[in-house]
Amino acid sequence: MSAAGPPFALVSAFTSKPFGGNPAAVAFVDVSLPLDYLGGLSANFNQPMLSCVSPTSLPSDDEKIVVRSIRFLVPNGKEVEICGHGTLAAAKALFEQPAVIATGVHTIHFKNINGDTLKAVKLEYGFIEIDLPSASPAVLSDDEKTKLKTFVDKAFGRNVVIHDIKSGGEKYEPYVLYELDESENLAGSAINASALLENGYVVNVFTTASSNTDEIFVSRMFAPSMITSPGEDHVCGSAHGVMAPYWYTKRGITSGHEVKAKQVSQRGGDLRVVWEKEAGRVKLRGQSVILATGNLTL
Asked: Does residue 154 sit in the same domain as residue 129?
């Protein structure tokens, strides 16, 4: 009988519900394989993100810390440097492997294509904490804001009340952040993401204050050039690398204090957020559900 092929898992991230959160496929394959091969895998899985994780560990100075390489690919075959929900899904799949459970590993260091470390830590009650770069959003000129509002109004199909627009800043240059008035009902809005294609940014993050006292802010994210129609990312971890500094600064929240946030896409997602200002990092804490596991035959 032939040996089983590389294992994979289908995971819903940032949720405790199997059909909530953001889906991702996790494949434990040689990450040095050609991009067209890994892109083909991503297209076949047809999940919002494929996290390719090296099947063996890199050297580690601590037996309780596993170090793995990771690459992120969207279904159209394009590769991205950072994916929050892809990191969380990969950590969930790896923490659930019997060999990892047996060693009592509590921390994973994922090395991305730039050599940056994306850290994942196992917490209580099924939560996993991931650690991503943060960046304070950059101020835009009035002319740029006026231009961007035109795209937003077209996407929403109405005159949208916008309190502020900022770019993602260092490390998140392709991102643009829009704070809308809470009355805009972000969760209930039908948004034509294709109307945002020519605005000069890849990732469009819309956020409002939350009327629910349990959360500080809610959000939705659209990247129509990267994500197939309707162009929305159900739960975007990396967007919180921009939103956390924005909301912590606006609300005067102490660095290191945990707050709750919610992504209000159709599937929805729940996040616990900690911005560490001096370190330039944001910690995202969430649960995940494994829907299926199997082995590739390639």
From this structure: no
